[in-house]
Structures are given as C-alpha cells and as structure tokens.
Amino acid sequence: MPSFDVTRSRFRLADDEVFVLAQRATGQPVPESMAPAEARLRDAGLINGAGELSALLLPLMQTLVNPSVIVSLEAGGRQGTLHHGLLVGDEHVVCHETWPGEEEAVYRLVEPRTVVWTLADLIALRQSDAGGRDGAGEQVVETTVGVLEAGLQALEKAASTPGADERSLVVEALRAAGASEATATLLSQLIVEVRSNWRMTAAWQGSQDGVPGVTARAVAAWDCGPHGQWLRELPAEPMAEGGATAHSPFRLRRVASKRIWQELTGLLPDGSEIARREAPGQA
Q: What is the band of 282 on the pLDDT scale with cuts at 50, 70, 90?
C-alpha cells in the first residue's frame, strides 16, 4: 500500500504506482491493467477521483518526469541485488531506495547541495573507513571474469550448505578455475567478506563531438568490510550488457575511501555538459 510522510517529503511507492503517477502527471491515459495500482493511490489520498495528483507530489513528480541527470545504482550482496538511484531536476533532487524483499521503494526529496553525500550514503561510504586507510598500502588483484564467477558460484553453494567452510570452498573453486595461489588466497578473502559490489551510472542528455545524445559515466567498486574498498578497474565502465565474457580481464585495486568520494564527485556532470530540454506537460 502506498504511503507518505509529510514531515520529510518522502513516499513509499511500488513501480506500477510510480508509472500511474507519471502517466497522470504528463496527461497520458492509464492502461486498464494499472487500475489496481491507481485504486491504491486513490485510497492513500495521493490522487483524487478525477485523477489529479495531490499537491504533496508535485515536486517529486516534476523531477521524476523531467530529470536533467539520472543516477542509477545496482548493489549486489548476500541478500540479492538492490536498485537505488537519484534524479536531479531543475529545482529538486529525488533519491529512491529499495529494501531487500520489498516491492516498494522510498522516494524522498534531498537538498541539492548534498548530492554527493547522498550518493555516498547509498553505498554506505564513510569519509574514513578503518579498512580503507591509505596506510594499508596499494594492492591489486587480477584474474579473469570466468575465475571470479567460479568463486562467486562456490560462495553461493557454500551459503546454502549448512556447516560449509565458505573460504575453503571459494579458494578451491578459484584454483580449479586457473587462479594462481596468491590470487586465489586474496580474492577468496574479498569474495567471502564483500558487503556489496556495486555499480553506479550517471546519464544525461548531452553531446559528443557536437552530436546530441545520451552521455554517461560510471564507476564500480567492492566494499569488502575489514578488507577495505576496492575499485573495479576491469571490466571498464560504462559497460554494455553482455560486454564481458569469461575470458575478459578482471581487476580490483584497493583504494582509500577518499578515492571513492572523488569518483562519486567526478561521476556527475557540470552545467555545461547538460543539454537543456523543454519540460513536458506539468502535473
């Protein structure tokens, strides 16, 4: 059931409910298949009998239907893959966050000046993490995507086997896939301890060599808890779906938290990179 919190300008909405709101906000018809979602929104007081949006939704929907920048985050961990994101509009910024096992996401307005801080919060990044101190020294682990996948599959199998020694099974799988002893030892530690492996992509309407089109930048990393932050350098981002094969090189580099903060800052475009568009019909 959709709900909202007036005190913090936040809303709990499922994907089909967001679709209905977007249709109404832009004056488009709502398909009959979306009638149950529209009924839930009406019951929650977010739209009225005539299909008009509550005034509470206006800043949110103005940003959702006409964002200047869309930041999407795919974060994988032991509870599965979660999708979060940020939409930057001309006047407002909207953050949306999902929760393991829940269909609804929380949409909330955030202060535009805190965009980088909000992105950092989405990946649980802190300014100073004990596992990512500069003093830890540079470390790099290199292998192939196929070897990595063998280790991840071993972890998944171990997690569903009572009493299994996760690290031993992962090490064995990495060795069997062709990893050297040093690589198998280090990579197994990272795989077992990883809190999340995430990829963040920022996209906007810009131009390349004078040709208008969608422009994107992306960064990917592993948060390995006590073993620190590891920037994924290969496969390089942004990467198209299916762009990596089992033989593709895979490389992680341990970095301090400061480096991740810098990557998040560099992800976002400045005003000169964004091609302004006319806003669609207002809500």
A: very low
Q: Dihedral, CA atoms, 256, 258, 260, 264, nearest 10 degrees?
A: 180
Q: Which three-class secondary structure string do you get for 149-207?
A: HHHHHHHHHHHCCCCCCHHHHHHHHHHHCCCCHHHHHHHHHHHHHCCEEEEEEEEEEEE
Strands 93-97 and 105-110: antiparallel
pLDDT-derived band at 132, boundaries 50, 70, 90: very low
Nearest to 184 by CA among 148, 231, 155, 157: 148
d(CA 108, CA 99): 14
pLDDT tens string 160-175: 888 889 999 999 999 9
Report the SS3 class of residue 260: helix
The residue-averaged pLDDT of 129-139 equals 58
Report the length, in residues, of the chain: 283
